[in-house]
Amino acid sequence: MNAARNDSASILPPGTEDLLRGVCADPFSVLGRHANGRNDIVRAFCPDARAVKLVVLRPRSAPIERAMRRVDDRGLYVGTVPAGASYRLKIGWADGWEETEDSYSFGLLLGELDLHLFTEGRHRDLDRVMGAQVMEIGGVTGVRFALWAPNAFRVSVIGDFNVWDGRRHPMRLRHAAGIWELFIPRIGPGERYKYEILDQDRRLLPPKADPMALATERPPATASIVVDPRPFPWEDEDWMNGRAARQADSAPLSIYEVHAASWRRPAGDPAGIMRWDELERTLIPYVVDMGFSHIELMPIMEHPFGGSWGYQTLGLYAPSARYGTPEQFASFVNACHRAGLGVILDWVPAHFPADTHGLARFDGSCLYEHEDRREGFHPDWHTLIYNFGRHEVRGFLIGSALMWLQRYHVDGLRVDAVASMLYRDYSRAEGEWISNIHGGRENLEAIQFLRDLNMTVAHYCPSAMVIAEESTAWPGVSQPVADGGLGFAYKWNMGWMHDTLQYISRDPVWRRYHHSEIMFGLYYAFSERFILPLSHDEVVHGKGSLISRMPGDEWRRHAGMRAYFAFMWAHPGKKLLFMGGEVAQVHEWHADGEIDWAGLGNPMARGVQALVRDVNRLYRDLPALHREDCLPQGFAWVIGDDDDNSVFAWLRLAHGAAPVLVVCNMTPVPRSDYRIGVPVAGYWREMLNTDAQDYQGSGVGNEGGVHTTFEGAHGYAQSCVLTLPPLGVLYLSPAGGHA
């Protein structure tokens, strides 16, 4: 140092040298205001400044400026102000003067209750407390930064506002919670920032993005961005007030799953990505026209690798900058609601990638993940697994879920890869996993996390849905937590998807020997509240498109596709279809392409699209097809044993509503004079015939309907004699109404 003065001890306290070297764990002990009798000593560390002045504010007089003394060539300045006087710093840089309040003149920022709730994992407003929050403190506008990094030795905020110099803005540690905090005056929305962290061995880590950033740079850039705190002007009050009824298990839930980047590319730009305003103008009207009730977006939380389709998420609190700003995403959701569409987001709490700017060894320790790779590394995806046993990690994840539901009015979250969370030995060989405290394979901490998540959402957002992608026979996934379940609203029926796709892929000649595959799902259809998914996972990685799995020539493939969709929409359970299926896309989905819209030049593809539009309308308009979707009394077998003809039939029922008879002929052979018993005498109108010429079928059918005869069949006193179209499905309903 070059300040050999008699008062150097009072001017330069212990810790000064550490501060100048960038390794000070307590910058407030050196910087800012410090009482010293009638005057307060003010210290400021401004590396590369050419001069620093104190601007002393006086209540009834003009401010006065006092030059601060440079006491170290590395940029430490010292000055005095009258005890208790307000002041600002005026810093001379090479390109001009900057006047600002002193970050180190502000007291403690986060309240004790915030810290306590955070450490217990029970803080439910983390998006408004942690990260970068624009606010006013003592009449000064700026940004409060708060970061959980309990094992760091030093943390600094770096950004454009301090030329990414970690010496300029080291933070204060709130030891009880392991949270670092700092208020930086006179910066605001749009600022780019990261955190510079020294681990406990004082080693400099790669700059870290904010885990709770509300916005980010567009990848491959990785900085976090300060957002505008003004609330979005929502116009969806009617939707939100009626949402509970729209998403109840008695509602017609029909979901269109979308990968936003590859649904449609901007005109003339095959590598471009539509932004939210463009999707608002194009995607929403299309989904409304097709009759779906909800859009489900594959993960739109920020993720560094586009090839992961969003499933390797690092920014659990930030909409991806690929599609626009947070405000534009809110506008998209608002527009969906105004158009009568719900929005579901895929959400990934099961694992996260190991990118160096992200959560991996965040403060030099395994903070978010497990230290032991047998618990903390996912062999399928080469990603890291959250430590669900840590309160702060559970709170971080639940805080993310609540943010999407509350801040963005999202209607539901589809939790990805639940099975991988439930079992400690998931995708692991013997010796590659650690048993739970009872010696079992169940991940008790993850189970408790999922229950906490669902109970919390039910409390704070009671009309929202949380949906499980769960591929095993774990009991009670959609049962209430109070009854021993996991508490999800719905569960994807992966077994139904596997069995029915396997059946429909078989040559019709052999289907008679595999009748159980198409029927098996009906034996357990009411054990959970199910969604029937034909998701993106079924049209990638060499599996081919849906229509490519249909056997036969072009006509038979399209007929089989129509029949399969009609079978699905009449089967108990809510519906989900991945984009492209509705237009009979020939090619397997690729995230770098788009839906084969040009394929609609084929009339048969347009026929499939028209069929999907109509089954959505019927599913919505006929209460028997949806009102008791999740209850056994909503379904009754009529024919389940006609293996030889590959024909089966059932009734969909709802109290007070007309029944719907569903008849499926899964061979290309028309069946004439086929007698089926029905519960109501009279005229049964043909509500749907997948072989209709409107769908490019052969037109075999029943001329709009049939009258019953008094010849009993299948346990009913009357019956219909039907013509069953080839590879066709019929929906019929009595003209007189009730059963």
From TrEMBL:
Keywords, A to Z, come to: Carbohydrate metabolism, Glycogen biosynthesis, Glycogen metabolism, Glycosyltransferase, Transferase
Please give a single GO biological process term from the UniProt record: glycogen biosynthetic process
- The entry's active site is 416, 469
**Catalytic activity as recorded in UniProt:** Transfers a segment of a (1->4)-alpha-D-glucan chain to a primary hydroxy group in a similar glucan chain
Q: In which pathway does it act?
A: Glycan biosynthesis; glycogen biosynthesis
UniProt xrefs under CDD domains? AmyAc_Glg_BE, E_set_GBE_prok_N
Q: What EC number(s) would the UniProt record show?
A: 2.4.1.18
Give every Glycosyl hydrolase family 13 catalytic domain span: 257-626
Q: Sorted alphabetically, which InterPro entries does this protein's record hold? A: A-amylase/branching_C, Branching_enzy, GH, GH13_cat_dom, GlgB, GlgB_N, GlgB_N_E_set_prok, Glyco_hydro_13_N
SMART domains from the UniProt entry = Aamy (SM00642)
Annotated GO molecular function terms are: 1,4-alpha-glucan branching enzyme activity; cation binding; hydrolase activity, hydrolyzing O-glycosyl compounds
**One Gene Ontology cellular component annotation?**
cytosol
Function comment: Catalyzes the formation of the alpha-1,6-glucosidic linkages in glycogen by scission of a 1,4-alpha-linked oligosaccharide from growing alpha-1,4-glucan chains and the subsequent attachment of the oligosaccharide to the alpha-1,6 position.
Q: How would you summarize the oligomeric state and partners of this protein? A: Monomer.
Family stated for the protein in its record: Belongs to the glycosyl hydrolase 13 family. GlgB subfamily.
Concerning NCBIfam families, the annotation shows: branching_enzym, PRK05402.1, PRK12313.1
Q: What is this protein called?
A: 1,4-alpha-glucan branching enzyme GlgB
What organism is the protein native to?
Gluconacetobacter tumulisoli
